[in-house]
Amino acid sequence: VKVKIPFGNKYLDAIFSVPEKKPTYGVILTHGAGGDMNFPHLVSLAAYLASHGVLCLRFTCKGLNVAYRTKAFKAVVEYLKLSDDYKLSGVFLAGRSMGSRAAASVIHQLSQGDDDDGFIQGLVCLSYPLHRPKLQSKLRDEDLLLISCPVLFVSGSADEMCEKQLLEGVVSKMKAPKKIHWIDKANHGMAVKGRTTNDVMEEINAQVFSWLKENVQLQHK
């Protein structure tokens, strides 16, 4: 289902992947610095989640400024929260690369205000860009260290923008419940020599879904 989401005086293009049964939970998903919501990994994940009963709303926001992307992500969260078509109990924010930085920033900002009503259940970071390639002295970890909701990282062990030991170091300092799933030998684009894209995406999709399921159950015991 294609929708246009109001954002300031513009609209963001977005697509709902809707499960057959009425969903209780949703995932809002966005892309990295390049590309848009039709990036194959996002399309694959959205279809997988919908086929397993989770609503997925993916959106496009062009712009290389994280603050701008964060504002856009917030507008999408508000839109879904107020939607009459889908009354959800909660939503997980997910993004690829720069999109996951924007998602982390939204969660940090919303958790500081008085409007933290538990609607956001967790964060999924696909290929989180912890640092620029070869520039490991400056880590983009400020939002991660201040988040308290559960976080899942799915990263390639050969990601040139997320050195394995550095991410493990950041994660060990995080207050939030967290998990890292390493895709062996994958680069920032999740490509692995000797494995097909579909094969890698199946691994990622299954990991994301099983983590979502665990976290929904944990909160509703």
Describe what this molecule looks like in 3D.
Pfam families: Abhydrolase_11. This is TEX30 protein. There is one protein chain. The protein has helices at 40-51, 66-81, 98-112, 164-173, 197-219, and strands at 2-7, 10-17, 25-30, 55-59, 90-96, 120-126, 151-156, 178-183. Helix 3 (98-112) links the parallel strand 5 and strand 6 (120-126). The protein has one domain (2-195): Rossmann fold (3-Layer(aba) Sandwich), CATH 3.40.50. The chain has an eight-stranded mixed β-sheet with strand order 1-2-4-3-5-6-7-8, with helices on both faces. The radius of gyration is 16 Å and the shape is globular. It is of the alpha/beta class.
What is shown here, in short?
Residues 27-209 form the KANL3/Tex30 alpha/beta hydrolase-like domain. This protein has one domain (2-195): Alpha/Beta hydrolase fold, catalytic domain (Rossmann fold), CATH 3.40.50. Helices cover 34% and strands 23% of the residues.
